[in-house]
């Protein structure tokens, strides 16, 4: 029987992994530049953690989570996003407090049962940050700048920034009431999901992608028109800091994000290099989530980047992706049993210097081994046969120029250095 990769997942093969390694290396460098430290949480968590944080009426919780029971009947879920697990880890390990700013980042796989499409899989990868301890709009601005700096570090330029505020517990009820008034006349003509959202959380209707619902959604009232003074001041201050940083943005009244925990700032970064699904990252402020999950009232802000979509952009663009791996420097072409033994001995010595090296294990002819070395991109080939064993020296060949020179076995390491 021949097995296939599960629908909605994919193998990341050797020809593509250098792009991923480069992407991760750039992200880690930029995160460190901004003072962030890495946190790694388990792949699965208690189902209740996500239901409580993301919201039971969201598509993620209602339709997309991979939930299962363990042997003791406890409900566990493969993480569909990473903010709630990071908050859980930060609380459990006393990483955050009201009088400190704590900056954390993560890189890893997430899981959602979605319809697979370009740049969107059921197992997908996200990189993101979570910052705890400050409600300053300047921190929102820094998080957005960090997000943009990730793309700048990769050479990606053609981006757009969408910005909005969804208000807080004081002003959002007024906005919810306005949405209910707007949608009640047309809700019977909208999709089943929208009708359910109308009953439980009208704000979620703005997330609907159904074409038949878009005209009614486009005419919906804007959240920024019902903001309280505190939320309005926060948004104005954020826009001021973005202006100081020279960052252009567009106010998007429909941007509420697909998670219930957001308060005040929401933002999304889009790329013109993708199609209709053009969002490459998004985030916002979630000042109530830490308290909601059992901690003190500590404000927070963060974002997540969809890494598959970034890989798609890098593949399509003219950007030359740097390889994180060094590549093969030396290929040892050996002939005969004694040549192979000596080659194996030298291979260990060369690698101990931090020089990437390889040799033949199939007993191929010299001509075939040279072809292998060329395919691997080796800079040099060191040839060892019976004659070389007798002279205790091999032939070092520079592949780019075909220049050859005789080098004693004991001097090979020095020659390479």
From TrEMBL:
Keyword tags: Aminoacyl-tRNA synthetase, ATP-binding, Cytoplasm, Ligase, Nucleotide-binding, Protein biosynthesis
Q: What is its EC number?
A: 6.1.1.21
Its GO CC terms are: cytoplasm
Against InterPro entries, the record matches this protein to: aa-tRNA-synth_II, aa-tRNA-synth_II/BPL/LPL, Anticodon-bd, Anticodon-bd_dom_sf, His-tRNA-ligase, HisRS-like_core, HisRS/HisZ, HisRS_anticodon
State the NCBIfam families in the record: hisS (TIGR00442)
**What does the sequence similarity comment in the record state about its family?**
Belongs to the class-II aminoacyl-tRNA synthetase family.
Listed under subunit, the entry gives: Homodimer.
Entry protein name: Histidine--tRNA ligase
Organism of origin: Candidatus Saganbacteria bacterium CG08_land_8_20_14_0_20_45_16
Gene encoding this chain?
hisS
